[in-house]
Amino acid sequence: MKRILFALLLALAAMSVNAQQRVDNPDTVYTVHSIDQDRFKDVIADWGAADWNMVSPRPVVVDFYADWCMPCRRLAPILRDVAQNYHGEVDFYRINVDDNPDIASAFEVRSIPMLLICPLQGDPRSLVGLYTMQEYIRVIDQTLKK
After folding, report:
1. SS3 state at 45
2. Exactly one of 32, 72, 109, 144 is catalytic; which is it?
3. Closest Cα to residue 119, out of 91, 95, 100, 97?
4. What span, in angstroms and rounded, lies between the C-alpha atoms of 41 and 50?
5. Cα–Cα distance, 124 to 110 (Å, whole number)
6. In this structure, what DSSP letter does residue 44 have?
7. 69 is catalytic
8. Is there a contact between 54 and 45 (Cβ–Cβ < 8 Å)?
9. Pseudo-torsion of CA 54, 111, 64, 13, nearest 10°?
10. pLDDT digits (tens, 9 = 90+) for 112-146
11. Contact between residue 52 and residue 123 where contact means Cβ atoms under 8 Å apart
12. pLDDT at 73 over 60
């Protein structure tokens, strides 16, 4: 039984790695990248600064999640599909709140999943809860004024 479970976990891990690899052709896979609070400062914005100043060349959506959170787990495949919808025009990241409590506190993450939608101009907007793919696209488009 342990061998079967171990084999299943290995297979799921391999599928996850393959799904997240970027392929440079018309069928490019756009995905959600895991980052930590230090990398956030390098690729999105300095979350500790007094003024919000994006460093990313594209708008960004950040998923604040935890491994133990069932709605967060249900959101993961939805968010991958949403990322595909934007064809690289918007970058998607995820941050584990248990491993990065300082940034979770800075953005007042009180409930998860929580998305932080960061347009190039203006302040970020948060969206808490689990919704349909269409609702995420609607809110992202509205926030990015598409």
Report:
1. strand
2. 72
3. 91
4. 13
5. 16
6. T
7. yes
8. yes
9. -170
10. 999 999 999 888 999 999 999 999 999 999 999 86
11. yes
12. yes
DSSP β-bridge partners for residue 62: 93, 116
Q: Evaluate if residue 18 carries a pLDDT over 50.
A: no
Write the Ramachandran bin of 89: left for phi over 0, alpha for psi from -120 to 50, otherwise beta: alpha
Confirm whether 72 is a catalytic residue: yes
Angle between helices 70-85 and 133-144 (to 10 degrees): 60
What's the N-to-C CA distance of the chain in angstroms? 51
Catalytic residue among 44, 69, 95, 116: 69
Residue 56's DSSP bridge partners are none
d(CA 83, CA 6): 30
Tell me the two tokens of residue 145: 């004024």
Q: Which two tokens stand for residue 73?
A: 């787990």
Whether the upstream peptide bond of residue 113 has omega within 30° of 0, thus cis, is yes
